[in-house]
Amino acid sequence: MSEMSRGGLRIGVFPAALLILSGCEGSPEVEGEGPMVVAADVGFAPHAMMAANGEVEGFNVDLAREIAARLGRPGFEIVDSEWSSIFSGLYAKKFEFVIAPTTITEGRAERVLLTEGYLDTDPVFLRRSDEPELTDLEQLRGQQVAVNNGSAYDLWATDNHEELGFEVLRYGKNADAVQAVLSGRAFANLVGESVAMWAIRQNAGVRADFRIRAETAFAVAFRNDDVETRNRVETILECMKVDGTIARIHEQWLGVAPAPGSAAVTAYPGFGPPGLAGFQETPGRTPCG
């Protein structure tokens, strides 16, 4: 796989059952002592997706289950939200926070309150395995690149499509972007590496080409005024890194152990992404404590 660094992207109720709520329903009661209410883009595999038995499963579903348990909440509910409208739902208080993987960017840190990263996510181009390898971004010229509408990968494509001469095809669900590649409607799907890894495990007809070294990570997103909850959840994430819980989830859904020093196993000082809006220094605080 070719790779390079490029600017523009810095880049329901468990345990018995999961309740899936429509993103269009009235706002549920949140932040109480009942089930934790969170948002995910169901269909964004392997982070949240429908299983054959009709339940929702995935990396971030397991993450939500563990957070709810450690908060002492009696399970959790998922509000299924397309990515393009997920922050609007957050501020409308349809859910407590966004458990869907949220790529850390400077712009997002201004809009929502982020935790530290819990999973590294370099962007890659998912392509049909019977097509010639993508080794240079100039090969995108005249092609169609499919993205999940409103995602960090959409932002990268929007920032770079004129310079590189490709057309952006936007889909409400990334699963539809993958299908566009398989059917030949799109040259590639620009997506995070974890999503590409899952797609490749499920379908020999696709492969990952040309990783963009962006040094970005996924975080959990909260409303800007919800500092206390962000800090509580970040402390839980740090403990899950220290005790190996996130590493176990990583191996289950991605098929490999996280790399030493990666966000999945590293607890960072302070609260939030260092150097961005919402970051809180905490001198003397021990991560996971």
Question: What features would you describe in this structure?
Answer:
This protein has helices spanning 59-71, 86-91, 106-111, 152-164, 174-182, 193-202, 227-242, 245-254; strands at 3-4, 19-22, 36-40, 49-50, 56-57, 76-80, 97-103, 113-114, 119-120, 123-128, 144-148, 167-171, 188-192, 206-209, 211-212, 217-222. Strands 2, 3, 6, 7, 8, 9 and 16 form a seven-stranded mixed sheet that branches. The protein is α/β, with parallel strands linked by helices and 289 residues long. 29% of the residues lie in helices and 22% in strands.
Distance, first to last CA: 40 Å
Please outline the major beta sheet: 7 strands, mixed
Helix content: 25-40%
Task: Describe the oligomeric state of these chains in a short phrase.
Answer: single chain
Topology as a string of helices (H) and strands (E) = EEEEEHEHEHEEEEHEHEHEEEHH
Unreliable sequence segments: 4-11, 13-30
Task: Label the structural class.
Answer: alpha/beta
Question: Any idea what the shape is?
Answer: globular
Strand tally, please? 16
- Put simply, the count of helices is 8
Rg (CA only): 18 Å
Mean pLDDT across the residues is 88
Q: Strand-residue fraction?
A: 15-25%
Question: What's the short story on this structure?
Answer:
With 289 residues, this protein is of the alpha/beta class. It has helices spanning 59-71, 86-91, 106-111, 152-164, 174-182, 193-202, 227-242, 245-254; strands at 3-4, 19-22, 36-40, 49-50, 56-57, 76-80, 97-103, 113-114, 119-120, 123-128, 144-148, 167-171, 188-192, 206-209, 211-212, 217-222. The chain has 8 helices and 16 strands.
